[in-house]
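Inverse folding, one chain.
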């Protein structure tokens, strides 16, 4: 083969082929990372002191944005967690929410957004712990899938 600027034509083609493979691999990695970043927002409505839908499914390890619409004339809250979380709210040992993404106060007529990453698969509940609301049936199930 005839050298072209110190390289053979075959060496140039190999270099071009490797560059194309690297670009394709980078594109696949970027697309995979973008897909792993987030899911479509989940919309939850509150009407007549009920969550709708009252059953949700989300993937483990991916950010999930939950948009909560309170169409009632009274305040509510959306607290998602295991039974230990709900027991603390039920007995009043944890009356406030702070900055927890899994504990959201939703004033009457308001919309609130929160983004949560659930780190293990399993079944959780979401509940409004304002007085009498859970007993009235203001609860739902959230399934975190592998």
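Residues assigned per position:
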């Amino acid at each position: 083969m005839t050298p072209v600027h110190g390289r053979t034509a075959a060496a140039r083609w190999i270099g071009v082929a490797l560059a194309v493979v690297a670009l394709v691999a980078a594109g696949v990695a970027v697309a995979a990372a973008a897909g792993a970043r987030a899911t479509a927002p989940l919309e939850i409505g509150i009407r007549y002191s009920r969550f709708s839908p009252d059953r949700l499914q989300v993937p483990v390890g991916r950010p999930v944005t939950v948009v909560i619409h309170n169409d009632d004339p009274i305040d509510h809250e959306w607290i998602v967690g295991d039974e230990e979380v709900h027991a603390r709210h039920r007995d009043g040992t944890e009356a406030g929410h702070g900055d927890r993404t899994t504990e959201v106060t939703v004033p009457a007529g308001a919309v609130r957004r929160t983004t949560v990453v659930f780190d293990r698969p399993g079944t959780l509940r979401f509940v409004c712990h304002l007085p009498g609301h859970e007993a009235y049936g203001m609860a739902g199930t959230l399934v975190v899938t592998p």
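The chain has two domains: 3-37, 42-145. Residues 3-37 form one domain.
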